[in-house]
Specification:
Elements lengths: L1 H6 L18 H17 L3 E4 L6 H10 L1 E4 L10 E4 L6 H9 L3 E4 L3 H15 L3 E5 L5 H7 L6 E4 L16 E5 L5 H14 L14 H12 L6 E4 L5 H12 L5 E4 L11
Parallel strand pairs: 1-2, 1-3, 3-4, 5-6, 5-7, 8-9
Length: about 270
């Protein structure tokens, strides 16, 4: 019996593939460092408007160091220090912080800031802005706040087929930076089919971080029995990566916040 076991072939060893690139984009990393530096220089508490990143591990780590996350600047004590997250804020939020004499640290992603400036510029020039993005997302709320009277939200490609505009000859599209380029351009294609004079924003406004991570998952998914995406359920990018893995050949795909959440039955 022992000889039979010794002669039996060893079970195949699994391989772990790491998608590349992976992890946070540069804008999020910059914002996290901003909170860490504020805590290091000024001590706790440092208030942060909204989650600095949609990742519960990062949020809890910063909370343990003294960061206090709030939904509104009205929750921050007068005169205290507050960090604006990478997603950006509207002018109304900035004004609210000033009214409370808050010491603000703006960790808005530079690409998001560029979109804000474009929204302001196009609105000033009497363009109607079609903002491609997800309703309720912090970045979308911030961008719309820079040109509220001139901006219409387009949630997805299907919405492009029904959106109504005042003047189809003075029309421009902008995008939530965390959407994939593929998703955005499909919406743009359908908008342009209805509005041929639709203008594009400057090409350097596009963030490729989301697209690059989706491409990385597409590359490894066909060779993967299981894809595990580390990220929180309120992260649209995380949820989308799970969908991309399943759509491009992975045997299964799951999202987890921590390694302890990996179910052995998946393996």
């Amino acid at each position: 019996m022992e000889n039979a076991l010794a002669d039996a072939p060893a079970p195949p060893r699994g391989r772990v593939l790491l998608a590349s690139p992976r992890g946070y984009c540069a804008g999020v990393d910059r914002a996290v460092v901003a909170v860490e530096k504020a805590l290091e220089l000024h001590g706790a508490p440092v208030y942060v408007r909204k989650q600095i990143v949609h990742n519960i591990h990062v949020v809890r780590t910063l909370e343990a160091a003294g960061a206090v996350f709030v939904d509104d600047v009205a929750e921050v004590p007068e005169g205290a220090r507050v960090v604006f997250s990478a997603h950006g804020v509207s002018p109304a939020v900035v004004e609210g912080a000033a009214a409370r004499h808050l010491q603000t640290i703006d960790a808005t992603c530079p690409l998001v800031t560029k979109v804000h400036r474009e929204a302001t510029r196009f609105a000033r020039d009497d363009f109607q802005i079609l903002l491609i993005g997800h309703a309720g997302h912090e970045e979308v709320e911030g961008t719309m706040g820079h040109a509220p009277e001139r901006t219409i939200l387009v949630n997805d490609p299907d919405a492009a087929d029904t959106v109504e505009v005042a003047d189809p000859t003075k029309l421009v599209w902008l995008s939530q930076t965390t959407l994939s380029v593929d998703e955005t351009m499909e919406t743009v294609r359908r908008l342009r089919a209805r509005f041929p004079e639709l203008q594009d924003p400057p090409s350097d406004d596009i963030c490729y971080a989301t697209q690059n991570r989706q491409v990385a998952v597409k590359k490894i998914a066909p060779d993967s029995d299981l894809v595990i995406v580390v990220g929180s359920k309120n992260s649209s990018n995380t949820v989308r990566l799970v969908d991309v893995a399943l759509a491009t050949g992975a045997g299964a795909a799951h999202r987890v916040d921590y390694a302890a959440e990996i179910d052995e039955a998946w393996l």
